[in-house]
Write a structure and sequence with these properties.
Blueprint: H1 8-28, H2 35-47, E1 52-56, H3 59-69, E2 76-81, H4 87-94, E3 98-102, H5 113-126, E4 130-137, H6 146-156, E5 159-163, E6 171-172, E7 183-187, E8 201-205, H7 208-217, H8 240-251, H9 253-271, E9 284-285, E10 291-294, H10 298-307, H11 337-345, E11 346-349, H12 357-371
Parallel strand pairs: 2-3, 2-4, 4-5, 5-7
Antiparallel strand pairs: 1-8, 6-9, 7-8, 10-11
The structure holds pyridoxal-5'-phosphate (PLP).
């Protein structure tokens, strides 16, 4: 079976750099929030076209930290898609607030602005909940419809989080999500387009005050003085080793995004006539965390690809609002028919910055054979 994500080619390319930086960090002994962490934060802010970047322990904490900074509480509503990884919704009840699930666009799989507007209106008129925050997800690596979503947020006085766990590096009309969102959250989980060798996360933003609060919250709520606490916080810091690894990977990330886009183009050309291939929003550039197609007989399709040595994955088989722990939370008026239909049809194919050549041709011919 070929790899679903080839991390070995990147590892070989960066081997000398990674070995040098890892040895240096281990020898220096500043294992948590060391100098490489500060350097990485500067680079992430530049890369993401933001003024401030702060690293944290993972992409889930990256979502929790702004909700903590904005003091979300019981009675507050946070609008989230259901066609996403658990973290997007999970952080909301953890704060005592209520997630309100919103449907997606059938082609981009990202939050549908019309469903969002309807969900906000319903919440305001039919519930006692107070709309506070929208979390849009850059699903599979492509930017959500930020112009439309941020306009709704501005009109309603809501904060906007770009959950770019899968999408850091994506752009819309040349701008990163930070141009629209109050804060962009990132995951460095190993399988992400910019991944480290363990857990890691970050937030980027324009607002200095929010950055100050999150800097304190990620380190137990500590203030200026050591062991003097100004608020209740978390232990959510990035290890220096992971920062060193990410600095090396960030240097080649732009090139890898180009490689991912070339691979996505080759897939579309290879089988776009026989299966539904992904649509990227007009003016958008995806980082292709996943390459996700739609097929009718998904289990049959997966079995045929497995026989041909091609691994596949399902993101996501069960929408969050249909899962037991979330079943009591509200959904947008009219329900989430697009989300529920997509969950039955989607299947993701191998994708990374080094796809191409024989490996990709093998995937293309296996797809064509499977649907013939
Ligand atoms: C959309 C989305 N949000 C949040 C996260 C959470 O990131 P982490 O696994 O680093 O906590 C993920 C990770 O899979 C994700 O895909």
């Amino acid at each position: 079976m070929m790899p679903f994500i080839d991390l070995a080619t990147q590892r070989a390319r960066l081997q000398d750099k990674l070995d040098t930086i890892i040895s240096k960090i281990v020898a220096e002994g500043r294992y948590v929030l060391g100098p490489e962490v500060t350097e990485l934060e500067q680079r992430l802010a530049e890369f993401g076209q933001a003024d401030h970047a702060l690293t944290c322990a993972n992409g889930t904490d990256a979502l929790a930290l702004p909700l903590m900074a904005w003091e979300l509480q019981k009675g507050d509503a946070v609008f989230v898609p259901s066609f996403t990884f658990a973290s997007t919704a999970e952080v909301v009840p953890l704060q005592g607030a209520t997630p309100v699930f919103v449907d997606i666009d059938p082609d981009t799989y990202c939050m549908c602005p019309k469903s969002l507007a309807a969900a906000i209106e319903w919440t305001k008129t039919q519930t006692d909940l107070k709309p506070r925050v929208v979390i849009a997800v850059d699903l599979f690596g492509q930017p959500a419809d930020y112009p439309a979503i941020s306009e709704i947020c501005k009109a309603e006085g809501l904060k906007l989080i770009a959950d770019s766990a899968q999408g850091f590096g994506c752009t819309l009309n040349g701008k990163h999500p930070a141009a629209w969102a109050d804060i962009t959250t990132i995951s460095f989980y190993p399988a992400k387009p910019l991944g480290c060798y363990g857990d890691g996360g970050a937030v980027v933003m324009r607002d200095a005050e929010l950055a100050g609060l999150i800097r304190s919250l990620r380190n137990h709520g500590e203030g200026e003085a050591r062991y003097a606490y100004e608020r209740i916080g978390l232990n959510s810091r990035l290890d220096t080793l992971q920062a060193g690894i990410l600095l090396a990977k960030l240097e080649i990330f732009e090139e890898e995004i180009v490689g991912r886009n070339a691979a996505a183009d080759a897939y579309a050309e290879g089988f776009g006539d026989v299966v539904k291939t992904p649509t990227v929003i007009d003016g958008g550039v995806s980082v292709w965390a996943q390459y996700t197609i739609e097929v009718d007989d998904r289990e049959g399709f997966r079995a045929k690809l497995a026989e041909a040595g091609v691994p596949t994955a399902i993101y996501y088989p069960i929408p969050i609002h249909l899962q037991a722990p979330y079943a009591g939370f509200p959904v947008a008026p009219g329900g989430l028919p697009v989300t529920e239909a997509a969950a039955h049809r989607v299947v993701s194919l191998p994708m990374d910055g080094y796809l191409g050549g024989e490996r990709q041709q093998a995937v293309i011919s296996a797809v064509r054979t499977a649907v013939a």
